[in-house]
Amino acid sequence: MSAYLLLIVAVLSRVVPHPSWFNFTAVGGSLLFFGARRPLRQAILPVAVLAATDYYLTSFVYRYPFHVQDYLLTWAWYAAVIVLGHFLLAQKASALRVTAAVLIAPTSFFLVSNFTAWVTATTLYPRSLAGLGMSYVAGLPFYRNDLLATAAVAALVFGVPAIARQMGPQSHPAGA
C-alpha cells in the first residue's frame, strides 16, 4: 500500500504548483520504491499514472500539443526505473544498493533525455559535439534537482525504516 501512496505523492509533486527553481519531484524515488516493494506485473499502473500526468501537464497546464512519440522514451524510463528498483532493492536494500539506485535513476534520465533533446530540438542545439555539450550543460540544474529529490525520497522510504529497525528493541537470548 505504501508504494501506491508514494506514487500519489509523486504525481502531486508534479502537478501542485511550486516555484520553478524548486523543481522537486518524487518520481525517481517513488519508482525505485515501487519496484522494490511491488511485483513487476504491477509496474503498468505507475507507468500509466505518470503517463496520464504527462498528458495532463502538457495539454492542460502548459497548453502544448501532445504527441505520444515525444513521451515514449520517458515512459520507457519510468518502467526501467521500476525494474531497477526491483532487481537492485527488492531482496536487500543496503545503503550501497540504495545509493547506486539513487545515482543510476536520475543520471540515466539526464543522459537519455538531454541526448533526445539534442537530436529532436533541431533549432535549439547545433548538430555537433558542441551542440550535444550545450544540451547537457542546459540540463545540469534539472539533473541536480532530480538527483537531490531522488536521494531525499529514497532516504525517507529506505533509510528511515532501516534506522528504526536498528534503534528498535533488540531480541535477547533466553536467560540473558
UniProtKB/TrEMBL annotation:
The chain crosses the membrane at residues 20-36, 43-65, 71-89, 101-127, 147-164. Keywords: Membrane, Transmembrane, Transmembrane helix. The keyword Transmembrane helix applies. It holds the Pfam family DUF6580. InterPro entries: DUF6580 (IPR046487). This is Uncharacterized protein.
